[in-house]
């Protein structure tokens, strides 16, 4: 047994020896082939990398497709292998550097073995790289990435903006849409709702939403777009190369790009977003209108503030339903402080959410009202955003002009020209002497402030207003200043005058509408430059020494106060530039001390009891704007000695009561005096007879000057209001009202050659406006015809062979009992090409509106209103318009049809499309039994006002159309 055991041991020893020998031999071979194995591995790796390059090129060349899952996995494993090869290469190079060290024989052999195994792995990867399932497959488009966004349906101001933008997206020729408005109005909410909108999803292949970073760098925007498009951009690729990649990717796609929070204008071409042939669109949201314009917006949408009802509803949603009636009342007051700004409502609601009793709510309201002196969570955050807009105003004049607006009550209209006069008087419009130049500069600044959402359009034309939050910010900023501290107590302020220290520390004081009854005897206010006391109806007396320390006062407004006289200390106001006394009905004279106001430029004494101005007072020598009423001519001395001496006068307004019967001699004298004013740029006057106008035209040297504007009323008219002017910017309009005359006067035709807006009232013995010769009306932008009983048509094409009314934008025809049609005879191409609004009211014999050839000229018509025209049977006559282009009236937005008992149809058939129509109002049109609208041919229709009883009589081609249109209806009973 020992021998057998020994034999087995020997065999095992022999086998072990052979294994050891084989292992050593293999190690020696790996060591000997060290360099060869490395080179073969590198060669195999190179072949694999080349294959990977081919695969990636095929992927990149098929932008409408994506890599297969197998392909993406293979590329990933190749990338992992590449890293491993690089690691082995590093070890190989290290071994080469230390080849003289014998002990490294074993590590070299091991490394060589690893390289052999890696080469085999590379070979397998290369075989798998044939990708039997293909490299790419169709790319399933990720149409949209849904964003978190509050719904807008219950927020009309925001929902309106969404609908407005959708309307523009549907229009083929609109490529870029700018959305602008002040911070906190909900621009981001609108943009996110657009991103998520189902209709948008159907319109575009892909929707790309980008929140632009504060610096607005092109690279950051490009990065967001390339990530959304899943484009691979190599490190180090410059913006121009990236732009080309983006452009190539988007070329064959119908895309919508939404750029939110644009902080400054962006060059879309540099990003790679340029116009393609796929009707792609770009919508960008910014605080400033100007930035949208600079980015080439085809259409602009201004964000509106929320109504109070919608604001309270949003507040209640954020804070939770309020049950306590007392808290509800406080909550309503809290919402009023938020000025309809969704962002502020959201932030303030958060701070009130945890207040669970009436004491905390009342205290919170007090803090909100005193936010300028206490730190208030929510409000401060919003004001930081708003102050950014202020701090980015370009120039000190814009900053000062903006702050000046805080002197006026919040949410109240401020007349633009008055505001600009105050700016000039204060010296805020630097180095401008001429009043007209100041108005031009002022309108430029106003436009800038409105673009920055620091001022808003007023409810009336040519007015602006400042909302509560912006005004509070302006007052807070002014409180920090050294030379422009404001004291503004308007409307809700105490009846008592400010304290002595308040007078002393303020540079501008506004106490308008404060129900003041008295003023301090001698307030110390050496630094005061503006004092606004208007509409204090109980302020009857100004202390005689009141103005003693106001040597720097430049603006004094007392209009519509109850003062009966002005104190002698008025003479101390040696720096005064603007004095407003209009509607001080108890004021019957101006003191002789007015003569000390050597720098006075604006004086308004309309509707006062003043019947004369002091003769030869030196102050009038610097007057640039004088506003008076006919009652101020009581003694007549002003006519003969004062007007012609006002050598610097630029604007003269003389309001004439329609019941005032001036003699021909008085009018002649006034006009002869006015003719000496060589710097006159504006004249407002009412001429009882045409002859008075003729005197001015024949004697004036300036009336045809390009800088001269006028508002003339000729003839006796019961109304002093110029209705057509509500449509116009005040400064750009040359207006003529002509009433209660007959036939054609040559001087009227002559004045019409320079007129922009024309009202013809109760005129007789003319058959059409063509009687005045339409070649004299080439500058007309608006025209109103009212009560002219002999007019049969507005234009007679037989005597007007050339294009007529080429600049006319608005036409209003009322109470024309003989009117048969708008245009008689042929319509020259180019006539009425700019008409946007046509209103017809009480024309009982009118049978046709669009005679043959007229409708084709109205490509810009937006508003058509036809009321109480009882003979109208068709809006668009079938026999005269039977071959109309389908896109006739492409811009019509509003259609109003009222009290048209014989109206049978709007169009001859249903072939017309109404791409811009948004609102329809129909009432008392019982013979109209069919509407030419459907969901397809009126895609922007959103509102139909109609009687429900009439609606039930309509005939429909399809019940689905009726249901769709019914959803837009607001029924009356």
TrEMBL record:
Q: Does the keyword Ribosomal protein apply?
A: no
Q: Carries keyword Cell inner membrane?
A: no
- Tell me the ranges covered by the Disease resistance protein At4g27190-like leucine-rich repeats domain, including all copies: 813-931
The record's listing under InterPro entries reads: Apaf_helical, At4g27190-like_LRR, LRR_dom_sf, LRR_R13L4/SHOC2-like, NB-ARC, P-loop_NTPase, Plant_NBS-LRR
Q: Which UniProt keywords apply?
A: ATP-binding, Coiled coil, Nucleotide-binding, Plant defense, Repeat
- Show where the NB-ARC domain sits: 161-321
- Record SUPFAM superfamilies: L domain-like, P-loop containing nucleoside triphosphate hydrolases
Q: Which domain of life is it from?
A: Eukaryota
All copies of the Disease resistance R13L4/SHOC-2-like LRR domain together span 547-690
Listed GO biological process terms: defense response
Query: Which ranges form a coiled coil?
Result: 64-128
Gene Ontology MF annotations: ATP binding
Member of which family?
Belongs to the disease resistance NB-LRR family.
- Matches recorded under PANTHER family: NB-ARC DOMAIN-CONTAINING PROTEIN, NB-ARC DOMAIN-CONTAINING PROTEIN-RELATED
The protein's name: NB-ARC domain-containing protein
Source organism per UniProt: Eucalyptus globulus (Tasmanian blue gum)
